[in-house]
Amino acid sequence: MPTVYVNDKPVDIGTQRLNCVQAAELAGVMVPHYCYHPALTVVASCRMCLVEVGELKDGKVTMQPKVLPGCQTPVKDGSVIVTGDYVKKDKSVPALAYDPAYKPGVRAKGAQADTLEGLLLNHPLDCPVCDKAGECKLQDYSYEFGRSESRMVDSKNQPPNKPGISSKITLFTDRCIMCTRCVRFTREISGTAELTVTNRGHHSEIDVFPGHPLENKLAGNVVDLCPVGALGSKDFLYTQRVWYMKDVDGVCSLCSTGCSIHVDVNKDRVYRLRARENPDAQGYFMCDDGRYGYHFASAADRIARPQVKAGDAVKNAAWHEVLPTLKADIEAAAKKDAKGVVAVLSPFLTVEEAFLFATYFKGLSKDVRLVLGPVPVIGQDDKYPKDVKGNAVEPTKFTIRAEKCPNRRGVEAVLKQFQGSVIPFADVAAKAGSLAALVFVGGYPNKEAVEAAVGSGWTAPALLVVQDLFPTALTAAAKYVLPATASFEKDGTFVNHAGLAQTFPRATLPPKEARSELQIAFDLLGRRGLVQAAAIRKEVAKAIAAFAHLAEEKAPKAGKRLELQTI
Amino acid sequence: MPIAEQDVKWVQEPKLGLFGQLYLPLVMDGLTTTISHMFQKKVTEQYPEQEPKLPANYRGVHRLNRDHDGHVKCVACYMCATACPAHCIDIVAAPAPVGWTDREKYPETFVIDELRCIYCGMCEEACPVDAIELTTLYDLTGLSREQMIFDKEKLLSVFDMTTKAGTDPVRTQAGKLGPASEAPPQK
Q1: How far apart are CA A360 and CA A355, in angstroms?
Q2: What average pLDDT does the segment A161-184 reach?
Q3: Which residue numbers delimit the 4Fe-4S ferredoxin-type domain (chain B) (predicted)?
């Protein structure tokens, strides 16, 4: 078996093609790096990952005479890697047969300190006012590997900031350490190549080409990629210090890719979304539609409390008044004409919510129809990288899906379990006027999707109950209007376009007067006790074979691909 | 944990001897102390007619210092709010107004709840630009809770008042605190 020795510790690398940084990671040794990123090409420009490399042959170690960049040096069977942290190595592992004159780790450690001193020569050290402080690699590594003071006596090179490089991103030029991750991202992942390095050597700067600002749908990723505070998101700029925020693992709800995301919240307010690495879902990045798309939750026109129509007037009502009459109305309609009762479950619901609602409506009568809510589709799948003319180039590295909802497949799986087939919304929308009751469980962050599906020739059924985030043509005609919750205000499971089920926890609380969909389903079912998505998840796992793995106590972070049938 | 029997020490009240039982010698002993104090230097201060002179490191009401241009010196880094054990500092940061050439970020609002503050001085310690200082103002009173919540303007007015009165001169003597507090080098 191919074995690599990292700080004397043998690691079996199998058939993988790895570099020293990755091999060291396998051995549990962190090699600091700035410019290396697993999704981007290697340039070895930051020199932070310098390690000592050698070879073990016939029981004898031959070390190379100089330090090498770990990200650019591939490993093979018998490779020996010695990092600057050699002194912190596991003492129980016996040392290899080094040359007696060789002192392992001394050169690498010295190289790290020297590299950092070089990187900090022109860095303004304005950590107190830099948004990156607290999650900055330059800060972390300087603390761990650097020296405490600068020997630079000349004034620093401080080029002016470039707030104009993009409408959403600003560049603090003086903080840049020229790792060129952002440049490589725009060239390799988005393919739009807006960013470049201008000037040479000491005077190098990141810049855009004149008249071509950094405007593409993946541009926000360069802020995450930047290991220092040079690229800043204007959306997040100066709003919060990173150490105040709690990072919750979420799933983006704005397209069917279902990107894994970090939801950064403080005091029940979302401050920013960042991509969370997940090779099964989307890889390392996310699109700007999702990244800046969380603002709908704090929009002023969001429905925040239940409303009931009395005559022509719409008035706010308390939950304890609404729920009994709502339940009585639905049940009366189901008793009178069960075939005329339709429950619309939107693809924005989680699997657990859809399951509970389906249980309730099918419990009223077998003839009640469950309908999949309108599935918003905008244009075509947007594939990256693109060439200069904007055409997608193979191989595709990132896709923004045209289907703008997170859980169509999950809701479909539930509907199929309960009634064998999925009825699209269009089938009932045209004949809505003749229905006895229509319960629309929505939660659409974009009201256009609902408006388009409803159309102009809409006639309201005898009883219309609508739960949604924003007022639409539907809510205007509804007798009962209930508030909905955004995806980061609830916990549950989404199934993405490829059948990947991802379970996520709640990040913030919904508005005070709003109740989660799960709670409303509980109330309708007359269930007692604490509303816990995890408990419902176990029920779902028992009832639907495809979701059997959801019964596991702790769902895997990366999610799990399901064997779902497509229709 | 209950106290173990061997840890308890029982003490008996000492019995008075003949000298103690006579009573008068002990009275005289006490009076000697009283009378000796009448001839010593007075330590009583006539507050509030006479106000005490407090040392410069006394920790009273906060102030926000001004820079040479009269702007608030604070750069809204939240270090004080982070260090504050009482969570009494609330800052809202914003990009600095146009014309403030020396920095990018400034506090749009800066509020200290003086009732919540425990006057520990950690904010002063944490500030990288010496913008927040505790003054020797100790007689802070207010008629309502709202009056005791100091906003940026009020904290700046404390600076104006204390520097004018000369009670608390600007203590920032550090030459270089970091680029955040310094003007960029002139080319």
Answers
A1: 9
A2: 94
A3: 62-94, 108-137
- Name the domain count of chain B: 1
The answer to whether the bond into B2 is cis (omega within 30° of 0) is no
Among A539, A495, A550, smallest CA distance to A355 is for: A539
Dihedral sign, CA of A409, A411, A417, A422?
A: negative
Helix and strand numbers, DSSP H then E, in chain B: 5, 5
Assess contact for A330 and A439: CB atoms under 8 A. Answer: yes
pLDDT score of B98 more than 60:
yes
**Count of positions (residues) in chain A:** 567
Distance from CA of A253 to the nearest CA of B (A): 30
How would you write A388-402 as a 3-class SS string? CCCCECCCCCEEECC
pLDDT at B99: 87
Q: Report the residue from A124, A155, A238 with minimal CB separation from B105.
A: A238
Rounded to 5 degrees, what are φ and ψ at A199?
65, 180
Q: Are strands A480-483 and A463-468 parallel, antiparallel or unpaired?
A: parallel
Q: What are residue A98's phi and psi, to 5 degrees? A: -75, 160
Chain B CB contacts of A161 below 8 Å: 104
> Does B8 map to a domain?
no
**pTM reported for the whole predicted model:** 0.88
Beta carbons within 8 Å of B48's beta carbon, 6+ residues apart: none
Q: Report which of A369, A227, A219, A190 is spatially closest to residue A288, judged by C-alpha positions.
A: A219
**Is B51 within the bounds of a domain?**
no
Full residue range of the structural domain in which residue B85 is found: 61-165
Q: What pLDDT score was predicted for residue A553?
A: 58
Paired with A82 in beta bridges are A52
The DSSP result for A189-256, as a single string, is TS----EEEES-GGG-EEEEBTTB-S-STTTTHHHHH-SSSSEEETTTTTT--GGGPEEEEEE--SST
Closest CA to A375 of A446, A474, A459: A446
Give chain A positions within 8 Å (CB) of B103. Answer: 129
User: The tokens of A381 are what?
Assistant: 């799948």
Residue A1 has a pLDDT of 84
The average pLDDT across A324-348 equals: 94
Question: Which residues on B lie below 8 Å from A124 (Cβ)?
Answer: 179
**Mean of all residue pLDDT scores within chain B:** 87
CA B39 remoteness from chain centre = 35
ipTM: 0.83
B84 is in an annotated binding site: yes
pLDDT in tens, A404-452: 999 999 999 999 999 989 999 988 888 888 899 999 998 999 988 888 8
Identify the pLDDT of residue B172.
Answer: 64
Which tens digits make up the pLDDT trace of A113-154?
A: 999 999 998 898 889 899 999 999 999 999 998 887 778 888
Q: What is the pLDDT of residue A557?
A: 64
Beta bridge partners of B92: B109
A193: left (phi over 0), alpha (psi -120 to 50) or beta: left
- Say what the pLDDT of residue A39 is: 94
Residue B112 resides in a domain: yes
Q: Tell which residue, B155, B106, B112, B113, has the closest CA to residue B135.
A: B155
Q: What is the CATH number of the domain that holds B151?
A: 3.30.70.3270
Which pLDDT value is given to residue A322? 93
pLDDT of amino acid A350: 95
For testing the chain B interface, which of A130, A238, A243, A269 should be mutated: the one with the most B CBs within 10 Å? A238
Number of C-beta neighbours around residue B115 at 10 A: 13
**Mean pLDDT to the nearest integer, A179-183:** 95
| Residue B67 belongs to some domain of the structure | yes
Instruction: Tell me what pLDDT residue A303 has.
Output: 94
**Contact at CB, B105 and A158, closer than 8 angstroms:** no
Give the best residue of B105, B108, B127 to mutate against chain A (max A CB count within 10 A): B105
* A231 vs A228: CA distance, rounded Å: 8
Return the closest-CA partner of residue A172 out of A242, A214, A223, A211.
A223
Mean pLDDT calculated for residue range B64-71:
89
